[in-house]
Specification:
Blueprint (H helix, E strand, L loop, with lengths): L4 E6 L9 H13 L5 E9 L3 E6 L2 E7 L3 H15 L3 E5 L4 H11 L3 E4 L16 H14 L4 E4 L2 H11 L4 E2 L18 E8 L4 H10 L6 E8 L2 H13 L3 E5 L3 H10 L2 E4 L8 H7 L4 E4 L7 H4 L3 E3 L3 H12 L4 H17 L2 H17 L1
Parallel strand pairs: 1-2, 1-5, 2-4, 5-6, 6-7, 7-8, 9-10, 9-12, 10-11, 12-13, 13-14
Antiparallel strand pairs: 3-4
Helix pairs in contact: 1-13, 6-11
Length: 361
């Protein structure tokens, strides 16, 4: 039996939130629609319940966030009508009830890990005991999926260490970029994109350290707390090479990356950052102070891992203050690597083959 209908389930539509896993779920859904008669992209934290057809074989099902039993009932009603053969889940703490639904319908469920945090149990914290218990429960339920997919080799090994189950590995991916934008090196644009919990203060400290440089311009964009926004606005007042853009659209993200030369990452924990891939596809060098998925930055020669802002500052001057050969070489290799290894069509094909394996064994 070959499955004809697949449902991809995540939190919210990526055009209505900023989650990297939601974006990956949507891109995978679009890619898988080439293999299935019907593909259902289901978001369960939406503002309203509705069903829309993006194309003849691509359905967007929105379930309003709220009272869980009512949401489950609505989901079951839609499932009777849509009749999916396979469940694919990404970025959901409500996974446990979806597992029960898949069991009820006797259909396989694929779980795609969203971060390294889903590979181990969280140490119980008396200040957030309930949160720790919920986290550990969700991590425990994931192991009962028909297949588990990890974003990196390291993530897969971490999961195996906890549960003695080795997930399949599929790297995050993006649509291939064909705009052919050429970098202008008369001014070097350093960009940080993300959310407030990913330590943007390290980036602003770097910008303050280099505020007297006429060569570099620092740009920060994303979703932040009111206190962080106030801090960024203050920095703009006494520096001439720092810009705070606030929350920007994906189209604007891509436009900024087209012009950027370096993406700075200051996160403490990630899966495989979407911004890395979006940057590489546009020839942007990544400099991280911690995150280095499967050591790709350093082993492939497409970025750097630096220990603190002083080392990042030294690396920026090394790359751009004189001969630009090294910077241009890293930029070219980043683009070449991303084109070969992070094509969303190929990633979708790998996931399709993993699902097909369930029906051939």
């Amino acid at each position: 039996m070959n499955p004809k209908t697949i449902i991809i389930i995540t939190g919210e539509h990526p055009y209505k939130c900023t989650g990297g896993s939601e974006m990956q779920a949507y891109l995978i859904a679009k890619g898988l629609s080439a293999y299935y008669r019907k593909t259902i992209f289901c978001t369960v934290f939406s503002k309203e319940t509705c069903i829309e057809f993006e194309t003849d074989n691509f359905v967007h099902l929105s379930l309003k966030n709220g009272f869980l039993p009512w949401k489950i009932l609505r989901f079951l009603i839609f499932m009777r009508e849509l009749k999916p053969d396979v469940f694919y889940v990404r970025c959901l703490y409500s996974f446990w009830w979806l597992k029960l639904v898949s069991k009820w319908y006797k259909k396989p469920i694929i779980y795609h890990l969203s971060s390294d945090g889903q590979t181990f149990y969280k140490k119980l914290d008396h200040n957030s005991l309930l949160s720790s218990l919920f986290h550990n429960f969700y991590v425990w339920t994931i192991q009962f999926s028909s297949k588990i997919i990890a974003q990196t080799k390291v993530q897969a090994e971490l999961y195996k260490k906890t549960f003695n189950i080795l997930p399949n590995i599929v790297y995050n991916a993006q649509p291939i970029v064909t705009n052919g934008v050429q970098k202008n090196y008369s001014k070097i644009y350093i960009i940080w994109i993300g959310k407030g919990f990913k330590n943007p203060e390290k980036f602003t400290a770097l910008a303050i350290n280099m505020r007297n440089s006429e060569l570099f311009e620092f740009i920060i964009a994303g979703i932040f707390t009111a206190r962080q926004i106030s801090s960024f606005e203050d920095i703009q007042k006494y520096t001439t090479n720092f810009r705070y853009l606030g929350e920007i659209s994906r189209t604007e993200v891509f436009r900024q990356l087209d012009n950027a030369h370096v993406l700075i990452n200051t996160s403490l924990m990630e899966g495989f950052p979407n911004t890395f891939i979006e940057a590489w596809l546009r020839g942007v060098i990544v400099i991280s102070d911690k995150i280095n998925p499967d050591n790709i930055l350093t082993e492939k020669g497409i970025g750097f891992v630096c220990n603190g802002i002083n080392e990042i500052e030294s690396k920026l001057y090394e790359l751009f203050s004189g001969d630009l050969t090294l910077a241009k070489d890293y930029s070219a290799k980043a683009k070449e690597y991303a084109f070969k290894n992070h094509n969303i069509n190929e990633a979708s094909g790998k996931i399709f083959q993993i699902i097909q394996g369930l029906y051939q064994s």
